[in-house]
Amino acid sequence: MEHKRKLLDIIDFYLVTDSSLSKKGTLSDVENAVAAGCRIVQYREKARSTKDMVLEAAQIKTLCGSEAIFLVNDRVDVALAVDADGVHIGQDDMPIGTARQILGKDKIIGLTVHNIEEALDAENRGADYVGLGPIYDTSTKKDAGDGIGPESIKAVKDAIGIPVVAIGGINKQNSESVIVGGADSLVAISAVVCSDNVARETEAFIKLIKQIKEI
Ligand code: TZP
Ligand code: MG
């Protein structure tokens, strides 16, 4: 687990799965993203049975191996069932303190936030990173609300000490604004899983992000 926590410092591109958008399927997407250098994977599945999720999560855990952090979206029970590296939860999911009690201090917990207040609260309550968004308007998450803009990232980044992962409507064209804006890492769901070459797109994002960070 110590090794997985260290990976949190080098997450440039963050893969979130979406079986409803994926061209080649979630397992193929994870395999290709990890092979391309992705160091964090979140299994986000809104429509499958718990049984299917546990079976699929176990396979994703194997694909991530020691290469990538493996988190489950929303479902603390599924994360526990397969001994995932942690969870990513939203403001209306299980309270983070409860999730921490159940999962223990070593597991990684990410929390979705929309502003500075929620970000400070997330850090105080023991989140390991925050997901901030939606940065841009997106149709991938129907209830995401309007984009808050890349200019909102800096204030959140300056307010907290844990990594800030930007999400929502991000593609290769606008990813520079997000990293220049202060994000440590970014998620781009449709831009990657709708592609017929997830490895190529992941590699392209990682290269772009690293280049921008070096400037
Ligand atoms: N949370 C906030 S926006 C979003 C989630 C899960 C969807 C992001 O998807 P895309 O395709 O990268 O805009
Ligand atoms: Mg959620």
Q: What sequence of helices (H) and strands (E) makes up the elements?
A: HEHEHEHEHEHEHEHEHH
What distance separates the N and C termini? 32 Å
Question: What does the average pLDDT come to?
Answer: 97
Regions with little confidence, pLDDT below 50 for 5+ residues: none
As a whole number of angstroms, the C-alpha radius of gyration is 16 Å
Number of helices: 10
Strand content: 15-25%
| Biggest sheet: strand arrangement | 1-2-3-4-5-6-7-8
Number of strands: 8
Task: Give a description of the structure.
- The chain has 215 residues and is an alpha/beta fold.
- 41% of the residues lie in helices and 15% in strands.
- The protein is built from ten helices and eight strands.
- An eight-stranded parallel beta barrel has the order 1-2-3-4-5-6-7-8, surrounded by seven helices.
- The protein is globular, with a radius of gyration of 16 Å.
- The N and C termini lie far apart (32 Å).
- The mean pLDDT is 97.
- The site of 4-methyl-5-hydroxyethylthiazole phosphate has 14 residues, from loops.
- Magnesium ion binds at residues 73-74, 89-90, 93.
